[in-house]
Amino acid sequence: MYISLHHLPGLFGPLLVPALQWALNRSARFRQAWAARDPLTRVVAILLLVAGAIHLALVPGHTGYPVQQTLFLVNAAAFGACFAAIFMVRWWRWPAALLLLATIVAYLVYVGSGKEELDEVGMISKLVELVALGLVLAPHRRRRRALRWTGATALFMAMIFMTGTVGYAAEFRPGAGHSHGGATGPPTPEQRLAAQRLVETTAAGIDKYHDPNVALADGYRPDSFTKAPSSHWTNERYQHDGHILDPQRPETLVYANTRHGPVLLGAMYMMESAGQPAPQPGGSLTVWHTHDNVCFTVLGGISIAGFMSPFGGCPIASLSVRTPQMMHVWIVPNPKGPFAEVDDEWIKKLDEQA
Amino acid sequence: MSTPQRAATPIVLFILLLLQAGFGLVMGSALLLVGILALPAGTWLGGITLATAAVVVLLAVGALRAWRWTRYTALVFEIALAFGGLLALLLKPDLLALLTSVGVPVLVSWLLVYRWPARITRAETQPAVG
Predict the structure, then answer these.
(1) By C-alpha distance, which of A329, A349, A351 is closest to A339?
(2) Which of A139, A227, A313 is nearest residue B101 as measured by Cβ atoms?
(3) FRET label pair with A174: which of A19, A91, A201, A345, CA 20 to 30 Å apart?
(4) Helix, strand or coil for residue A262?
(5) Residue A298: helix, strand or coil by DSSP?
């Protein structure tokens, strides 16, 4: 996951908290009120301040977006009011819980509807709010209240599950989980020609692999996504052979998993190591990408174990590494272009038409 | 007369452990879904992840009720988690992973070691009588 430039100031928001705490501690009345609160309430107070400070720090990063700026400002003020309420009234828990719930749900609506991309600052902010919500909901008095404990736990778990599910859904949106780099300007006529040549030479180079048995004989092996619309077949011998963008030795082939068996869709060129710069003969037409949300396991050979959780973790016994740069070249008429991402739904339709 | 307040540590431990169980619940469910739709390995990995999440829920309840076995079981689990998180960070630095895979386990471990309710610690350290 990445950090959006708009959200970068939010990371520094929590630095405001010690300064604010120091300023408030200068008042004897506040020191007295602070000392009178139990440790759990003090933890909640700090978490509310942190959440408010993050939202306040997000305001300058959203210049030109008056709606978001206003919402962040109102949210920060509301967190500040809840912080103050802790020291002034006994009924602060319900307003605080409602504010935390509303803040989390509003973010999920923004991310879920695609108005905002999922990023680390957003998730860190949600983690702070989730922990604060859990602590606010937890019954704090020594009474046997099984129903309240059950309700609070269920609501807390439901909010974590909802945050994670919306986060995963946002990560799987087309284009997410990818990083693109390189040339961005419009391609020159020479670059257009070079891109066209790359498609043609690739189609000629992998023509023999229309028969998957030839690919198997040459050392290509399918990945674990056997039930997905398409599979990547990788040749480990070609991954570190010193050949880059060689249509005779593409590192990976892509097959559609159809009812009639594997159907060749194209090739995927891959650089030898992560961070290695890639050539762009077609300028912005031939854009490479990396994956930063894939988890690999070494159990039973290196294979894909799953995808990084929106909370930043991988499944048991697997790790996420930044992949080398890679570029697809499709020899089928991909509606988005010969180098663009291919849509799984389009592959399914291809299968139905076949 | 006001009702006495609960101790803070068990509640904080309960919430942090539930948060970790929530991470497992989200990931396990996603893996199961991916397993059904595309990736065969996802099914068993999802099962293991969900089972681990269930154990963490049990640890959370144990922490709240100050069950003695919870302290050491959770400590071993959290230390393993923190080391795994550190290894992952060495390969790919990530702020969110630093917080969730290292920060939370370290905080929970610290609470388990230094803030476990005193009455439990005393009961454990006192020799059995009779």
Answers:
(1) A329
(2) A313
(3) A201
(4) strand
(5) coil
Residues belonging to chain A: 354
Query: What tens digit of pLDDT does each residue of A244-268 get?
Result: 889 999 999 999 888 888 889 999 9
Q: Considering CB atoms only, which of A138, A224, A319 is closest to B41?
A: A224
A120-148 pLDDT, tens digit per residue, is 899 999 999 999 999 999 887 666 678 88
Distance of CA A118 to the CA centre of its chain: 6
Helix-helix angle B8-37:B41-64, to 10 degrees: 170
Distance to chain A for B52, nearest Cα, Å: 10
Is the Cβ pair A160, B5 closer than 8 Å? no
Q: Choose the closest CB to A315 out of B45, B85, B98.
A: B45
DSSP sequence for B22-84: HHHHHHHHHHHHHHHHT-THHHHHHHHHHHHHHHHHHHHHHHHTT-HHHHHHHHHHHHHHHHH
What CA–CA distance (Å, rounded) separates A313 from A168?
Answer: 12
A165 touches chain B (CB under 8 A): yes
Q: What tokens does A281 get?
A: 């003969």
Quick check: A40 and B11 CB within 8 A? yes
Q: What is the DSSP string of A147-193?
A: HHHHHHHHHHHHHHHHHHHHHHHHHTSTTTTEEE-S--SPPPHHHHH
* Rounded Cα–Cα distance for residues B15 and A157 (Å): 10
ipTM of the complex: 0.86
Amino acid at A227: K
Residue that has been written with the tokens 């300007």 in this structure: A185
Regions of chain A with pLDDT less than 70: 1, 141-144, 173-184, 224, 226, 300-302, 354
- Extract the runs of DSSP E, i.e. beta strands, from chain A: 178-180, 220-222, 230-235, 252-258, 261-270, 289-291, 294-297, 303-307, 318-320, 326-330
The Cβ of residue A47 has, within 10 Å, a number of other Cβ atoms equal to 24
Quick check: B52 contacting A, CB < 8 Å? yes
Strand order in the sheet with A303-307: A303-307, A294-297, A318-320
**What is the C-alpha separation between A322 and A159, in angstroms, rounded?**
30
Inter-chain contact B16–A139, Cβ cutoff 8 Å?
no
Look-up of token digits 């050949």: A243
A20: tokens are: 């604010």
A169 touches chain B (CB under 8 A): no
Angle at A229 between CA A353 and CA A239, to 5 degrees: 125
**What number of C-beta contacts closer than 8 Å exist between A and B?**
161
A292 close to B (CB below 8 A): yes
Give how far the C-alpha of residue A277 lies from the chain's centroid of Cα atoms, to the nearest Å.
Answer: 23
Half-sphere exposure at residue A88, Cβ-oriented, CA atoms within 13 angstroms: 6
B21 pLDDT higher than 90:
yes
**DSSP label at residue B103:** I
